[in-house]
Design goal:
It is a single chain. It contains eight helices and no strands. By secondary structure, the chain is mainly alpha-helical. α1 runs antiparallel to α2 and α5 crosses α7.
């Protein structure tokens, strides 16, 4: 039988990737954050927006390239990961230079944001306001922003820039974790199956073997 392995497999579909969706949310959040809290004449503003955009674009380009080059897919996914790491440092610098607090990993507000599973920048903004007003706790309304809980009552109120920057850092951390897993899966697939050249060889070899041979008279 002729091999059913296609020469160019299904590819793209990046809009369904959780990593893409989260990177896009980080991009939208960064644009809004920079408009509100970063001087428009600052070079950092452009760098942050471009780094966030690069995360989104390279995930999409890598997904599209996967049909003919797993190597390119892996390379571009790595670029997306590096861009988000650059963006993470910019947010950390923003907090440090203004003597604002970077929340520790165990901070209940981080847990609250992850549990909310925001899909739009407006939903993140709503969460930021709830935290600022002391109305958002990890166990309130299943993480959807209920009354303050015992775990958050002791947390002092803070400023909008601090909350927004930490919200971005939380989402970046989740996006980077997803991309790390994505890169690991892509690397494993490349090692096992090779790239386009190897696939082309397998398909051609399989089809040659399946051709009927004429008998000798």
């Amino acid at each position: 039988m002729v091999s059913r392995e296609p020469l160019i497999p299904k590819h793209g579909g990046y809009r369904k990737l959780k990593s893409f969706q989260l990177a896009q949310l980080v991009y939208d959040l960064t644009v809004r954050f920079c408009e509100r809290y970063v001087d428009r004449f600052s070079r950092t503003r452009d760098q942050m927006v471009q780094a966030a955009r690069s995360g989104v674009q390279n995930i999409a380009e890598g997904s599209q390239a996967s049909g003919t080059s797993r190597r390119t897919e892996l390379k571009l996914t790595n670029v997306a990961r590096a861009s988000l790491e650059e963006l993470r440092l910019d947010y950390e610098d923003f907090l440090r230079q203004r003597r604002l607090t970077a929340w520790v990993r165990e901070d209940p507000r981080r847990v609250s944001l992850i549990a909310r599973r925001c899909e739009t920048v407006d939903q993140v903004a709503g969460w930021v306001k709830a935290v600022h007003d002391g109305q958002c706790g990890p166990s309130g309304r299943n993480g959807q922003g209920g009354p303050s809980t015992s775990s958050t009552k002791s947390i002092p109120s803070t400023t909008y820039p601090e909350i927004a920057a930490n919200a971005a850092l939380v989402l970046i951390a989740v996006a980077c974790s997803l991309l790390d897993r994505q890169i690991a899966a892509q690397s494993k697939a490349f090692e096992k199956e090779g790239g386009f050249t190897e696939r082309m060889y397998r398909v051609r070899s399989s089809r040659r073997k399946s051709r009927p041979t004429g008998g000798r008279h």
